[in-house]
Amino acid sequence: MIAAISEFANRFLGRGDATITVPSFDGALKPNQLLEKAETLLSCEAPEDLAIDGQSLLIADGVRLLRLTGPLPTVIRTFEQPISALTVLPTGRMAVALGGTEVRIYDEITASTPASVFSGNLHAVNALAPAPDGTLLATDGSTLRSVSDWARDLMELGNTGRVFRLDPQTGTIKPLASGLHYAFGAVASGSDVLVSESWRHRLVAIAPDGARRVVLGRLPVYPSRLAPAASGGFWLTAFIARTQLVEFVLREPAFRRRMIAEIDPDYWVVPRLSSGHSFKEPLQGAHIKTMGIMKPWAPPRSYGLVIRLAADGSPRYSLHSRADGVNHGIVAAVECGGDLIMIAKGPGRILKLPLASLDEGIGT
Amino acid sequence: MSETILSLSKATKLYAGVPAIDGVDFELRSGEIHALVGENGAGKSTLTKVMAGVVALTSGAMTVDGVAVAPKTPLEARQLGIAMVFQENSLVPTMTVAQNLFLGQEKFYNRLRGIYIAAQQFLQSLNFDVTPTATVGGLGAAKKQMVEIARAVLHKAKVIIFDEPTATLTPEEKKYFFDLVRDLKKRGVSIIFISHALEEALLLADRITVLRDGKHVVTDDASRFDRTRIVQAMVGRDLSNTLYGARKHKVRTAGRRVLTVQNLKMAPMVKNNSLSVFAGQITGVFGLVGAGRTETFKIVSGVMKRDFFHGGEILLNDRPVRYRVPAPAVKAGIAYVTEDRKVEGFFETASIARNIYLGLLAKFPSGRAWLSRRESNAAGRAWIERLKVRATGDDIKVVELSGGNQQKVVIAKSLIQDPELIIFDEPTRGVDVGAIVEIHELINRLADEGKAVVVISSYLPEIMALSDRILVSRQGKVVEEFSALEASEEKIMYAAIH
Question: B498 to chain A: which residues are within 8 Å by CB?
Answer without folding.
Answer: none
